Amino acid sequence: MIVILTALAVEQEAVLAHLVDVREHRHTQGTFFDVGALAGHPGRQVAVGVTGQGTLAAATLTERAVAEFSPAAVLFVGVAGGLREWLEIGDVVVGTKVYAYHGGKSTDEAFLARPQAWAISHELEQVARRVQRARKWHEPLAPPGEAQAPEVYFEAIAAGDVVLDSRASSVAHALHHNYNDAVAVEMESAGFAAAGHLAGRVATATVRGISDHADGSKSVTDRRGGQQRAARNAAAFAVALAAVAPERTRTAGSRAKPVPSVSFGTFTQNAGTVGQQNGVNTGDFHMNLGEKR
After folding, report:
1. What whole-number distance in Å separates Cα of residue 237 and Cα of residue 207?
2. pLDDT at 89 over 50
3. Whole-number Å distance between alpha carbons of 207 and 98
4. Which of 55, 69, 142, 155 could form a disulfide linkage to 147, CB 3.0–4.6 angstroms apart?
5. What is the predicted pLDDT for the residue at 184?
6. Around Cβ 118, how many Cβ atoms within 10 Å?
7. 3-state SS assignment for residue 215
8. CA distances for 230 relative to 7, 19, 96, 118, 145, angstroms
9. Do 11 and 68 contact (CB within 8 A), yes or no?
């Protein structure tokens, strides 16, 4: 099982377009997921959920999805604002590192950044790079030769609870000075990455399509279909990754040993009590009774 989370409906629909035999799955707390098989990969089940915007919602529902499905991997898929001129609308960024950029200390002199960062799961990154090299992931987007394949970049991403649409704002300056290697900015992956980290061995990755350049032109690019294009491209790459992501395997020797089931009572010998055990014992237990004299 692979879990794919999105923040927006346009991102959810882009992922669901790649699934077949979709059924509704309702969590006991009311969260809905769509569960289906990847088209062309009937053995690969995917659960898709929508978190809504923001790091807190993303963290909460990531934890919920991991507990509900025990997935081999969790992907957060959607759109982002580009922080580099060389990024084109529709390009895909796989987050090699996710920054939570709101942490810091505010003083009279300045805001002192105290960043947190989470790296992509190494195995997922390696598989994602092979998906990129094969250059077949974009084939469902358009017939061959009709559209240029979007570029895929492996770079750092910054995430916080702000819609950034300016290159001159205080947030833009803070990102430039303190998180200069981040090439894209969005609103969910910090919470998602933190929850994945706390979940332990589950593999996580963020896949984002560039929908605007975070420079004041967001409304214009959105009207021109930038969000739809970015969501579609990110979803196509993510499902190609989900199709070949390794399933979780148990390492040799990691299987827990069964706890011995032993019943204990009171033993008597020559009207004397030899031993008595109450409660529960775990682990190996040995008892030697001497010969009767």
Report:
1. 8
2. yes
3. 11
4. 142
5. 98
6. 21
7. coil
8. 13, 19, 19, 23, 19
9. no
Domain ranges (residues) in the chain: 2-244
CB contact at 8 A, 3 and 71: yes
- Mean pLDDT on 211-224: 94
According to DSSP H, which parts of 135-207 are helical?
170-178, 189-199
Q: What is the dotted CATH code of the domain comprising 2-244?
A: 3.40.50.1580
Chain-centroid distance, C-alpha 148: 28
What are residue 24's DSSP bridge partners?
34
Q: Which helix (H) or strand (E) holds 60?
A: helix 55-69
Q: Looking at the DSSP assignment, which residues form a beta bridge with residue 74?
A: 3, 204
The one-letter amino acid at 245: A
Where would I find the beta strands (DSSP E) of the chain?
A: 2-6, 19-26, 32-38, 41-50, 73-82, 92-100, 104-106, 111-113, 116-119, 152-159, 182-186, 203-212, 266-269, 272-276
Contacts with 282 (C-beta within 8 Å, 6 or more apart), sequence order: 259, 260
Radius of gyration of the chain (CA): 25
Measured CA to CA, the distance from residue 75 to residue 207 in angstroms comes to 7
Q: What is the structure's pLDDT at 285?
A: 43
CA 207 to the chain's CA centroid: 9
Place of tokens 């995430």: 159
Q: Say how far apart CA 205 and CA 95 lie, in whole Å.
A: 7
Reading the block at residue 250, the tokens are 């148990």
